[in-house]
Amino acid sequence: MGATARIPTLEGGNAYPVYLSSPVGLPLAAIIVVPEIFGVNPGIRAKCDDWASRGYLAAAPDIFWRFAEGEELDPDVPEQFQRALANMGKFSADDCIRDIEALIHHLKREMGCAKVGLVRFCLGGYMAYTAATRTDIDASVGYYGVSIDQHLGEAHAIANPLMLHIAGNDHFVGPAAQAAIHAAFDAHPKVTLHDYPGLDHGFASEAGVRRDEAGAQLADSRTRAFLAEHLV
Fold first, then answer.
1. Is 156 a catalytic residue?
2. All residues at 6 or more sequence positions from 212 whose CB lies less than 8 Å from its CB, including other chains
3. Domain count along the chain
4. Considering 201, 212, 220, 230, which one is annotated as catalytic?
5. Pick from 31, 15, 11: which is nearest to 2 by CA?
């Protein structure tokens, strides 16, 4: 259902890989699926294909293309998990958000999508927040909330709807960070928060030992309803 294409950067001169999965017929809208730190692996491609089966054009950018292009890692393999952490240490959020902005422009201008939403996981959850504060994304959803508490000074710039799924026992987003996120956003008119008590980081992964079936199903159903409301 999907294939990899190359999308020009904002600056031009370079292009980076994006997995594109297209629906049958005209898309309802486009959804950018930003991967975890494990690359555009089978789980992320499966999420894109699922969105395409629901009528959306789905696009998953390779966020580590500058130093590990095409690398696909399995979080359940310790050595590959450590490799993913090493990649994260080389990652620039500022570069990534510019790539996301370029992809938004491409989907709207070159592929004819009137609206573009975004779903992000793990590190991508922070990028969902950053997209809401720095780009014209029409709606965005972040899973797990990593690092958001460290960048709440940007919250005033949120202009379009944002949903965040917060795992209650997330070992990357502790109680203090979760409290700060709630303090900043509980009354924010553009932000919707959902808590998942007892669940850990990665509970909505497509497969693997981190997945919690009930939690994943609930979060994903909320995501689908949210994006349908704001994109279709």
1. no
2. 199, 203, 204
3. 1
4. 201
5. 31
- Residue 219 has a pLDDT of 96
Q: Find all residues with CB under 8 Å of 181, minimum gap 6, and list them.
A: 145, 148, 149, 152, 164, 166, 173, 193
pLDDT at 126: 80
Q: Return d(Cα 66, Cα 120) in angstroms, integer.
A: 19
Q: How far apart are CA 52 and CA 68, in angstroms?
A: 27
For residue 56, the enclosing domain spans 2-231
Closest CA to 212 of 161, 167, 152: 167
Q: For residue range 163-193, what is the model confidence (pLDDT) as tens digits?
A: 999 999 998 899 999 999 999 999 999 999 9
How high is the pLDDT of residue 146?
Answer: 85
Q: How many CA atoms lie within 13 A of 105 on its CB side?
A: 13
**Among this protein's residues, is 195 annotated catalytic?**
no
Q: Specify the pLDDT at position 124.
A: 57
Q: What is residue 129's predicted lDDT score, i.e. its pLDDT?
A: 92
CATH number, domain of 192, equals: 3.40.50.1820
Active site residue: 62, 138, 170, 220, which one? Answer: 170
Q: Which residues of the chain have pLDDT under 70?
A: 1, 123-124
139-143, strands of its sheet edge to edge:
2-8, 15-21, 57-61, 30-34, 116-121, 139-143, 162-167, 191-196
Cα 55 versus chain centre, distance: 18
How much is the pLDDT for 13? 86
How close are the terminal C-alpha atoms of the chain, in Å? 22
Q: Are 42 and 50 a contacting pair, CB within 8 Å?
A: no
